[in-house]
Amino acid sequence: MRSRSPLSPPAAVSQVTVRDALNQALDEELERDERVFLLGEEVAQYDGAYKISRGLWKKYGDKRVIDTPISEMGFTGIAVGAAMAGLRPVCEFMTFNFSMQAIDQVINSAAKTCYMSAGSIPVPIVFRGPNGASAGVAAQHSQCFAAWYGHCPGLKVVSPWSSEDAKGLLKASIRDDNPVVVLESELLYGVPFEMSEQAQSKEFVIPIGKAKIEKQGTHVTLVAHSRPVGHCLEAAAVLSKEGVECEVINLRTIRPMDMETVEASVAKTNHLVTVEGGWPQFGVGAEICARIMEGPAFNYLDAPAVRVTGADVPMPYAKILEDNSIPQVKDIVFAVKKTLNI
């Protein structure tokens, strides 16, 4: 057996930030399909407000990477019309809070057209940008829209956590013939995650609608999406020292939701805790709990399902209040102990 020389490349797993993973995905899809183009505020000459589109304008030019005025209703309408006409736009919102300016285009124009045209007009468009809480940006920049957009038939909604999620789900979204909402987390953009050689290949995609079990466990199922997945893994590490083994499920997709994976886990652990940064009423966790109640997994529950959510208030500006409005590791640990009655 031949040994590796000191000059040969290292093992094919490297650290890649979520920002760079998204940039890779956009670069590869712009290169792969000339119908793909990116538009939004600051995406071109400035390289993106969060540097997600760094280098793409210089590489692909004005027709493929387009700076827009500060007019979400306008440029979203342009993008939806372009999708109806056969192009594949990627429409960036500087924060999903600003997608409220364009929600008529997202829902009434994009989500409903394929159905209302009896399938004759597909709308292959991606709406992407940071969603949920950032840090110190108060209520009008800190809302989670997973439940809002997950509510609407005609849309697909994905919510990545890791760099692998970010790249694989964005590429799948761009290739999909339906409108897809990609809810990223600003607080994860600079976070590095391990990415395998396979995940860094140009053909790597993650199927929309499939959750991932990030950690196997036997005592309780934790289900989360986006940044709270990391909090669940931290809570699981804390609880493991006390003899409690949590199974952590990264939803990845909000709509369509992979309930089969959640149900199978609940059948194994007999307990369920959902975790999200959004508000409690009509939230993602509420939907998961309702479906567990209505489905076969309900018979396996040994205790009521518990939701860990953001506080039911507009996000405060003050840091100490903000911290208390977003689920923390200690809140997840408390919820697990409550459901296990320990």
From TrEMBL:
Cofactor(s) in the UniProt record: thiamine diphosphate
Catalyzed reactions: N(6)-[(R)-lipoyl]-L-lysyl-[protein] + pyruvate + H(+) = N(6)-[(R)-S(8)-acetyldihydrolipoyl]-L-lysyl-[protein] + CO2
Major location (coarse): mitochondrion
Keyword field: Carbohydrate metabolism, Glucose metabolism, Metal-binding, Mitochondrion, Oxidoreductase, Potassium, Pyruvate, Thiamine pyrophosphate, Transit peptide
Gene Ontology molecular functions: metal ion binding; pyruvate dehydrogenase (acetyl-transferring) activity
InterPro entries to which the protein is assigned, alphabetical: PDHB_mito-type, THDP-binding, Transketo_C/PFOR_II, Transketolase-like_Pyr-bd, Transketolase_C
Name of the top EC class for this enzyme: oxidoreductase
One GO-annotated biological process of the protein: pyruvate decarboxylation to acetyl-CoA
GO cellular component: mitochondrion; nucleoplasm; pyruvate dehydrogenase complex
Localization per record: Mitochondrion
Enzyme Commission identifier(s): 1.2.4.1
Domain Transketolase-like pyrimidine-binding, first and last residues per copy: 16-191
PANTHER family recorded: DEHYDROGENASE RELATED (PTHR11624), PYRUVATE DEHYDROGENASE E1 COMPONENT SUBUNIT BETA, MITOCHONDRIAL (PTHR11624:SF96)
Physiological role: The pyruvate dehydrogenase complex catalyzes the overall conversion of pyruvate to acetyl-CoA and CO(2), and thereby links the glycolytic pathway to the tricarboxylic cycle. The pyruvate dehydrogenase complex catalyzes the overall conversion of pyruvate to acetyl-CoA and CO2.
Record's subunit section: Heterotetramer of two PDHA1 and two PDHB subunits. The heterotetramer interacts with DLAT, and is part of the multimeric pyruvate dehydrogenase complex that contains multiple copies of pyruvate dehydrogenase (E1), dihydrolipoamide acetyltransferase (DLAT, E2) and lipoamide dehydrogenase (DLD, E3). These subunits are bound to an inner core composed of about 48 DLAT and 12 PDHX molecules. Interacts with DLAT.
NCBIfam families, sorted: PRK09212.1, PRK11892.1
Designated name of the protein: Pyruvate dehydrogenase E1 component subunit beta
Lineage of the species this protein comes from: Eukaryota, Metazoa, Chordata, Craniata, Vertebrata
The encoding gene: PDHB
